[in-house]
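Q: What would this chain look like folded?
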Amino acid sequence: MSQIDVLRKNRDDVAEMWNNGFKNKEIVDKYNVSIGAIKKFAFEYKNNIVVLKNMMGILRDNENEIRKMVLLGATTEEIAKKFGVSKMPISHFNMECKRKGKEILRKRDINILRDNENEVRNLLLNGNTFYKIGKKFNVSSAMVNAFVMECRKKGKEILLPKRKIDILRENVNEICKLRNAGINNKEIAKKFEVSTSSVVHLVEECKKKGKKLDTLHDIREQNIIKFFSAPMNKDLAYVASFIIGDGYVIEDRCTCGSVLGISLAKKDKSFLYSLCNLFDFNFNFYHHVGKRQDGYSYRFRSKKVCKILEDRFGIVPRKTGIEYYPEEIIGSKYENVAIRACIDSDGTIYMRKNNKNITLGCGYVTASKSFASVLKNRINELIGIDIKVYNTDYYRLHFSGNKALKFCDFIYKDSGFCLERKKNKYLEYKKMKGL
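A: My prediction, written as C-alpha cells:
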C-alpha cells in the first residue's frame, strides 16, 4: 500500500488530527509517511474533508486571546507554541488582520521602539543601521524604518543612519591603501561593517570620477601585458606554449569580462607557483576537487591580457580542438623550450622496465589535428626523427627508444624552466644506462 493510500484509508483520523491542531510532522510520525504525501493528500481532499480548521483557522478562532497575549508581550514563538502552529501562519494572520484594519503584531513591535525612543535615537547618532537596531530590540529593520518615518511625520527630528556608501566615501583613502596592499573587497566590507556590493559600487563610482581604486590589479595587469607583449624570449615561449596545453580563457557573462586560467593537479602546486611567478605577482590559487584528483587553479581577470593571448598565440575561449602551433615560435631559437612546455602540459615522459631491458618513452596528446601535424613535422625537421600521429579519440604522438632519447636531449639541452618530475625520468634513464 502506497503512502497516499494509507492516508486515504485513515482520512477521518487525519482530519480529526488537523481539527485538534496537530502538525503535519506529528501525522508523519504516526502513519510513517512523507510530508510530500500529506501535502498531496490535503490538496486532493481539500474540497471534501474537514480541513477547514487548519493553522490559519486555529488562529482566527483565537484572535482575542492572541491579542491579549501580544499586549502582555508574548513573542511569535510563544504564540506558535501555545496554539500548535508554525511562525509562518502567524505572519499571514497578522497581514490578514492588517487588511481588515485591525493589525495585531506590528503595533506591539512599534510600541517597543516607542518605549525606547531615546535609546533608538542614540543608536542612530552612533551610526548604527536599521538592521542592527532591529536585532537589538528583536524587531524587523522595516519596523525601525516605520518608527523613524513616524517620528519625522510628528515633527520629531531624528537622525537617519549614514548610508553604507557614505561610510566608504569618508574612508576612500584608507580603502585605496588596503586595496594596494592586496586586501580583497570582502575583507574591506567586513572592516567597515558594510556589504561587499557597497565596496564594489564605490570602486565603480571612483572609476567614473577618474580615481582608480584597483591599483594592485592594474599594476599586475600592466606587468602581465608587458610580459606577453615583449619580443619572443625563453620564458615567454615556455609560458605561452604551456597555456596552449593546460591553460584556458573563459568569458565571464556576469561581469562581461575575460579570465585567463591555468589548472594543474595538486602534486604540481609548487610548479604552478613558479610558472605564474614568471609573469605575475601577489596572486592566489583556487583549490578545486575533481572526480579523479584535486587540483589548483590560477586565474586573472583582464580583457586586455586575453586579447593579447588571442591575437598573438591563438588562445581563445573553448579552444579545445582548434589549437594551433604559434607561427612566431616556428624557426626561433626558443623552439626547443616551446616543445618542452608542450610535453610538460599535455605530454608524458616515462621509463618501462622489462626484465633487464629499460626503455625510455615519450608521448603527447591533443584534440587538435592541425597542432599534432605541425608538431610532428617540426620534431622531424629539428631533430631528424620520424614519428607517427595516432588518431583515436584524440591525436597522439608516441615514440620510444633512441627516438625518445634524442628528443629529450633536444628539449633539455639548456637549463631552462621545466616540470622537474618529467625531466627526472629522462635523467634517471641516462644514469641507469651510463650515458
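DSSP finds 24 helices and eight strands in the chain.
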